[in-house]
Amino acid sequence: MSTNTLEKDLLTVGPSKRVESKDKRLINCNTVDVNQLMPLKYHWAWEHYLNGCANHWMPTEVPMSKDIDLWKSNRLSDDERRVIMRNLGFFSTAESLVANNIVLAIYRHVTNPEARQYLLRQAFEEAIHTHTFHYIVESLALDEREIFNMYNEVNSIHGKDAFEMELTEALIADDFSTDNTEGAQKFLENLIGYYIIMEGIFFYSGFAMILSFHRQNKLTGIGEQFQYILRDETIHLNFGIDLINGIKEENPELWTAQFQQKITDKIKQAVELEIAYAEDCLPRGILGLSAPMFRDYVQHIADRRLERIGLKAEYGSRNPFPWMSETIDLGKEKNFFETRVNEYQSAATLTW
Length: 352
Description:
Strand content: under 5%
Number of strands: 0
CATH class: Mainly Alpha
Radius of gyration: 21 Å
Structural class: mainly alpha
CATH topology: Ribonucleotide Reductase, subunit A
Number of helices: 13
Oligomer: single chain
């Protein structure tokens, strides 16, 4: 954040000004000090913040001994190991990309304090997720350089990461501003790129793959950690949808037919990148999974994401993983899976 931006954030509107919630805006607010949290206007942002706090966890609380024993054994096939390695390679850097985008791009342009409060919580959770993948890599004694450099060396991972980094690059340019239609649309495109595409599409194939192991009582430590990540990501996704729809409502001039088509095309491009990633992870079938199944799955969840931001579904594909239906239902934030991790709880009350 530049010095000028920070100084602007710290400015008050004057001693005689009483803050009214109706004066707050998600972006381009010039009438209310960005540091004045109360009175709340966007109660959904505060609720997401509280839900995130209630779900606090640390990866080191999850035992990994069974995973270590299985990884060292000959009971996993090369194809199964490939799926694990590819997903660790993607998630290990994708989470840090999301964190960088929040801190360097999104936070500075959101002018509402309750939304910023959640962004701070989310940025911390992204750090926890990156910590998680380091913990897994360290526990299994994997080559850290190989895992954390896959985004440079594996084309299917690089393609997804490059897609997202281009969106961040536009927003961190010195002359970028949301004060004009072009800039505000670019900001909205960034939000859709990270919340709808990265966290809502790019992450979900990996969730299905890893949790397929967990359902068969394999790599249960990794599976439990992915369940917690999935809970965090579900709240991230719900917050992002609320933020996107809120900006659309306050700035209807941004949501033109041309812009809607641009967003639809972006999501369709992302679907193809994710299908290519699934094909790379699964050159042959494992655990009842195959790459063609992920074409249907990615298209199915893409339709759900399109509908949540007011766009038309494009594919009409079926869901090949009915056991993942709870994760697709974005309205639910409890009981995602029939596991002992079934309610939000603080770290102090976790039982394993």
